[in-house]
């Protein structure tokens, strides 16, 4: 701890030095400006304007807004696989699960502790069943040493109950945080010698199928369901209850030995494999050379305990362990420190403890202080015992060629499993458990996929396979080769779940029955998926479309431009910004790119309107005293230009608007009536400055946009009911039909809203839009009007700054309710302002 505080002190000192450096730089800049008198006034004027804009932003917005959307984003421990589901339930009874299945029609995903690392517990827009409150112990038979539990219970919670009975779990993972249902769904294993996967210790399951039926599955009844559900990743049904075989709790003593890797197989065969006294064993293979391995075993003993704790305390502090992992991740130097310093010191003491304590490790000891920029991930390879000598050089080459930051490789032994349809141990294997560090950015993810595919080929070349709870990078062809009985599994799944409701990212990729025409087409369409949170985040962006229209309408009504509520407009933008960010803050992963964009356009708008506030309340207001009833032709053209601009940006990017021709048009307008010369020229000069600056700024933005080589898609994709009433047009194209559904492409932005209004008059149902199940919509209605449609959320009200008699309401609703809602709005003479298409 002293070292930790010392580090904080050092960082604080460096922070003070940086502040002093910046302060000195500012002082030097001011001295330079003061020495150049001609620059002083513009420089201080610029600083004053920046401070003025800062104040406008600071005193705008709605920082008190505290409403958030329900969190429906699921992630796993790695924090790199966020998935947006439709609904999350946390059942405590079987009836709640049955009811949820029977009263929904869409996909269903099932999750426990979320320690699988590649989307195995979630699927987009699914009903997600979070099993962690489904955790009762149903029965314990101390004579038969058997226990029946609800599937959401953690191993640790079982240990707390059976330890006083001097019983122990027969097979489980090294760490005790996992749920029983999750462990059975992945057909887990541990460090247990003389055993294979957990299926050998499972006696019976109670399973809830896709039609809500409850069935019992064991080796005598529904054996095919038993064999498919264990290691079936939730594809067969919800594992509600499990009966497991237990064993006696015993005292175990630790032994370790380091040896060259070429000696390990012979050492294992002689000392471990048939030794009935060995309970736990694994080998730590040292990166980056992978030429030495330490065997660590725990053997039954009658010696006195050196560690009297029955279980590892749940409130243990793992500060040291997590920082040691950080040291090992430094690079080759960290690996050297681990091999020659950390491990030799760690294994010095002789330890005798209870089996249950050695089986009660907590994953918190692996958790880093942050997973924001880097994260720790697992992979696991199952290699036939006779092939490890030929596999290790291949594995090492893949790691070294791709500069993989491997923290640890642990070898565990497993006997064959000939029961599970998705068995990973069709013969006796050594499991290579790989713990590595990777970045969280897309480039790092792509690199991991690249070397994982290379590793998969290396595994298959040795007649091995890989564990499926991790990122599903393997190709469909590789999967079929590594899991040759997968066809049998999916055939049974299709029989029990013909609509493929039980699914997740893993099953969706490899399930041949899930690849409908529409599913295949969705994967082909590059811009099919859009981030759902953007339907809310686009509201402030669209305000920069609505407000120019208000301004144009205000001028067209003949009102004084100096009276336009510019500050109210600034305030309203930042209110929408604050509210939208707060609403999405807990429900979705942070969309940093979109947030930055909103900040940039918000500051730009504040600078423009801030300048107009200064001008219109001084020079503009003075010259308004000279205005007459008749406006000049130049002023009429200015109003026409503002209206043209406001109409243009409803469908096209603002920087594509042609500003300069309008300046020419204003200056060349021929006057036909009496008017105020002073007011005409003041408005003309002001308009010229405004549009000239926008022309220059728009050119910069356009150049920047083109330099990215990314043209935003002008299409958005929907899955709708396949009815004869849908007709193709310039703005609506039918992409693919499949049964009673089809994918259509609709032109985005203003056109999208118009097309949705058209569809609302037809017998059409929307199933998803851009892969999403919710969408935002805004309406304009009188202040006195109220609507409270069921299942539709009013996010907030927005002010129409030029008309207090009307209001803008922003709603969030399921996409399936979009068309009925629009139809209802129109029947009540409420204006559908915009459907926010992400």
Describe the protein.
By secondary structure, the protein is of the alpha+beta class. The protein has 24 helices and 27 strands. The longest helix is centred in the N-terminal third of the chain and has 34 residues, at 2-35.
Low-confidence stretches: 1-12
Give the overall silhouette: elongated
Q: Could you tell me how far the N terminus lies from the C terminus, measured between alpha carbons in angstroms?
A: 48 Å
- How is the main sheet built? 8 strands, antiparallel
Q: Radius of gyration from the CA trace?
A: 33 Å
Helix content: 40-55%
* Total E-strand runs: 27
Structural class: alpha+beta
Output the number of helix runs: 24
Assembly form of the protein: single chain
Mean pLDDT: 92
User: What is the percentage of strand-forming residues?
Assistant: 15-25%
Strand order of the largest sheet: 15-12-14-13-17-18-16-19
List keywords for this structure.
single chain; 838 residues; alpha+beta; 8-stranded antiparallel beta sheet; 6-stranded antiparallel beta sheet; 27 strands; disordered N terminus
How is the secondary structure organized here?
Layout: H1 2-35, H2 37-58, E1 73-74, E2 83-84, E3 87-89, H3 94-102, E4 108-111, E5 127-130, E6 137-141, E7 146-150, H4 155-162, E8 167-169, H5 180-185, E9 202-208, E10 214-218, H6 223-229, E11 238-248, E12 251-260, H7 264-271, E13 278-285, E14 292-300, H8 319-328, H9 332-346, E15 352-354, H10 355-358, E16 374-384, H11 388-401, E17 405-414, E18 429-439, H12 442-461, E19 465-466, H13 476-482, H14 486-496, H15 505-510, H16 517-524, H17 534-556, H18 566-584, H19 592-624, H20 633-648, H21 660-667, H22 677-707, E20 715-721, E21 732-738, E22 741-747, H23 750-759, E23 766-769, E24 774-782, E25 793-799, E26 806-814, H24 818-827, E27 831-836
Parallel strand pairs: 3-5, 4-5
Antiparallel strand pairs: 1-2, 6-7, 7-11, 8-11, 9-10, 9-11, 12-14, 12-15, 13-14, 13-17, 16-18, 16-19, 17-18, 20-22, 20-23, 21-22, 24-26, 24-27, 25-26
């Amino acid at each position: 701890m002293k070292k930790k505080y010392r580090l904080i002190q050092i960082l604080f000192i460096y922070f003070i030095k940086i502040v002093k450096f910046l302060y000195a730089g500012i002082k030097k800049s001011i001295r330079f400006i003061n020495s150049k008198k001609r620059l002083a006034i513009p420089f201080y004027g610029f600083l004053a304007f920046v401070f003025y804009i800062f104040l406008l932003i600071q005193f705008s917005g709605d920082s008190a807004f505290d409403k958030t959307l329900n969190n429906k984003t699921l992630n796993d421990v790695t924090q790199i696989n966020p998935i947006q589901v439709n609904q999350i339930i946390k059942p405590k009874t079987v009836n709640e699960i049955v009811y949820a299945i029977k009263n929904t029609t869409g996909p269903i995903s099932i999750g426990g502790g979320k320690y699988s690392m590649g989307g195995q517990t979630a699927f987009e827009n699914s009903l997600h069943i979070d099993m962690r409150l489904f955790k009762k112990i149903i029965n314990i038979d101390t004579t038969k040493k058997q226990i029946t539990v609800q599937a959401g219970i953690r191993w640790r919670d079982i240990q707390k109950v059976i330890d006083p009975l001097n019983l122990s779990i027969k097979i489980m993972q090294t760490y005790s945080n996992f749920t029983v249902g999750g462990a059975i769904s992945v057909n887990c294993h541990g460090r247990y010698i003389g055993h294979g996967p957990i299926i050998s210790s499972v006696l019976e399951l109670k399973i809830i199928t896709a039609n809500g039926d409850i069935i019992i599955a064991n080796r005598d009844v529904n054996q095919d369901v038993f064999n498919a559900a264990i290691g079936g990743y939730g594809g067969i049904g919800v594992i509600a209850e499990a009966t497991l075989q237990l064993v006696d709790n015993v005292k175990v003593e630790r032994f370790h030995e380091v040896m060259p890797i070429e000696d390990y197989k012979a050492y294992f065969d002689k000392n471990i494999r048939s030794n009935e006294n060995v309970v736990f064993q694994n080998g730590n293979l040292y990166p980056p050379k992978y030429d030495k391995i330490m065997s660590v075993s725990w053997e039954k003993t009658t010696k006195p305990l050196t560690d009297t704790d029955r279980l590892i305390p749940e409130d243990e502090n793992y500060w040291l362990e997590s920082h040691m992992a950080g040291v090992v991740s430094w690079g080759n130097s960290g690996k050297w420190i681990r091999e020659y310093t950390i491990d030799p010191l760690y294994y010095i003491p002789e330890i005798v403890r209870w089996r249950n304590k050695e089986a009660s490790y907590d994953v918190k000891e692996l958790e880093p202080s942050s997973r924001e920029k880097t994260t720790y991930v697992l992979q696991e390879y199952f290699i036939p015992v006779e092939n490890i000598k030929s596999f290790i050089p291949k594995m090492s080459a893949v790691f070294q060629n791709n500069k993989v930051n491997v923290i640890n490789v642990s070898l565990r032994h497993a006997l064959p499993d000939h029961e599970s349809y998705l068995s990973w141990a069709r013969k006796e294997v050594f499991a290579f458990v790989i713990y590595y560090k990777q970045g969280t950015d897309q480039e790092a993810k792509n690199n991991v996929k690249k070397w994982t595919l290379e590793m998969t080929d290396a595994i298959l070349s040795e007649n091995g396979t890989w564990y499926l709870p991790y990122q599903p990078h393997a190709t469909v062809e590789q999967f079929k080769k590594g899991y040759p009985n997968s066809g049998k599994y999916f055939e049974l799944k299709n029989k029990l779940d013909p609509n493929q409701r039980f699914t997740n990212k893993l099953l969706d990729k490899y399930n041949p029955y899930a690849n409908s025409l529409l599913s295949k087409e969705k994967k082909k369409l590059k811009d099919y998926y859009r981030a759902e949170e953007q339907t809310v985040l686009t509201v402030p962006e669209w305000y920069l479309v609505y407000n120019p229209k208000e301004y144009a309408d205000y001028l067209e009504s003949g009102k004084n431009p100096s009276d336009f509520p510019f500050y109210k407009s600034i305030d309203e933008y930042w209110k929408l910004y604050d509210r939208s960010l707060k609403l999405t803050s807990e429900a979705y992963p942070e969309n940093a790119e979109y947030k930055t964009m909103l900040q940039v356009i918000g500051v730009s708008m504040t600078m423009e309107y801030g300048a107009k506030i200064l001008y219109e309340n001084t020079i503009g207001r003075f010259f308004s005293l000279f205005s007459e009833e008749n406006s000049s032709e130049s002023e009429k053209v200015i109003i026409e230009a503002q209206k043209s601009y406001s109409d243009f940006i409803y469908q096209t990017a603002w920087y594509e608007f042609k500003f300069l021709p309008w300046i020419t048009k204003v200056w060349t307008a021929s006057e036909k009536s009496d008017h105020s010369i002073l007011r005409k020229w003041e408005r003309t000069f002001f308009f010229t400055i405004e549009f000239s600056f926008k022309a220059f700024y728009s050119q910069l933005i356009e150049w920047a946009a083109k330099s990215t080589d990314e043209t935003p898609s002008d299409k958005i994709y929907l899955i709708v009911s396949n009815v004869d009433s849908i007709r193709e047009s310039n703005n609506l194209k039918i992409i693919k039909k499949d049964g009673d559904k089809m994918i259509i492409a609709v032109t985005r932005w203003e056109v999208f809203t118009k097309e949705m209004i058209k569809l609302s008059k037809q017998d059409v149902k929307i199933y998803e839009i851009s892969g999403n199940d919710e969408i935002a919509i805004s309406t304009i209605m009188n202040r006195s009007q109220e609507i409270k449609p069921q299942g539709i959320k009013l996010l907030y009200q927005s002010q129409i700054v030029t008309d207090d008699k009307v209001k803008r309401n922003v709603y969030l609703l399921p996409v399936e309710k979009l068309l009925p809602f629009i139809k209802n709005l129109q029947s009540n003479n409420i204006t559908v302002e915009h459907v926010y298409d992400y």
